[in-house]
Amino acid sequence: MGTKVESTTLIHLGRVFRLERERLALENGNTVDLDIIRHPGAAAIVPLKDNDTILLIKQFRRAAAGYIWEIPAGTLNKAEEPLACAHRELEEETGFSAGKMEKIGEIVPVPGYSDEKIRIFLASELSPAKQHLDRDEMLSVHEIKVQEVLKMVEDGRIIDGKTIAGLFFMSRKRMIH
Q1: Is there a contact between 113 and 35 (Cβ–Cβ < 8 Å)?
Q2: Distance CA 32, CA 16 (A)
Q3: Whole-angstrom Cα distance, residue 55 to residue 149?
Q4: Complete domains list, the chain, with CATH
Q5: CA 20 to 30 Å from 144, out of 45, 53, 76, 113?
Q6: CB contact set of 39 (below 8 Å; sequence gap of 6+)
Q7: For 40, phi and psi rounded to 5 degrees?
Q8: Strand ranges inside 50-133, DSSP E
């Protein structure tokens, strides 16, 4: 039988995402209404400098009520490939470009109410470029040793999910090589 979408209603159309309400006929026989955020997807980047230093950003996030530590990331533009987005966002947010960019993972950060997928890349062979922040971005770039960054996750200074996932993928990749 499977799950069947009986109807979809647009609730809100925002700058980045849209909010829809779907009425679903579930395979267990129940009918439910679910609110789902439809998101174009994003790319996040672990910028590895000199093999033992990561570029982290400390960014103001109104929804998180202050500044939080993150890896660079951004939303895909219309018809933009995740790899192109990763290169663009790395330069825009950190002022560095990558000679090498490799996909290391993918996450769905909030599957209970959003279809957003974040593709995570490892950037290396970094060289200075021009930083150009969006109007709503308030952030600072910090070069931090890999071991210290991992301690920041353990002690709760890093709470951002995509950042924790990116660091996990990066550490697994480094263990394999």
Answers
A1: yes
A2: 26
A3: 10
A4: 4-38 (no CATH), 42-176 (3.90.79.10)
A5: 76
A6: 16, 17, 75, 114, 115, 116
A7: -70, -10
A8: 53-61, 66-70, 73-75, 96-107, 118-128
Q: Which residues contact 165 (CB under 8 A, 6 or more apart)?
A: 105, 107, 118, 120
0.85 surpassed by pTM: yes
pLDDT in tens, 113-167: 999 999 999 999 999 999 999 888 899 999 999 999 999 999 999 999 999 999 9
Flag whether pLDDT at 1 surpasses 70. no
d(CA 144, CA 52) in angstroms, rounded, equals: 8
Whether the CB-CB separation of 41 and 82 falls below 8 Å is answered with: yes
- The structure tokens listed for 13 are 């159309």
Mean per-residue pLDDT, 35-62: 96
Q: Give the pairing of strands 53-61 and 96-107.
A: unpaired
Amino acid at 167: L
The pLDDT-based confidence of 175 (bands split at 50, 70, 90) is low
Alpha helices in the chain (DSSP H): 82-94, 146-154, 161-176
Q: Are 65 and 41 in contact (CB under 8 A)?
A: no
Measured torsion, CA atoms of residues 176, 94, 108, 64, in degrees rounded to the nearest 10: 130
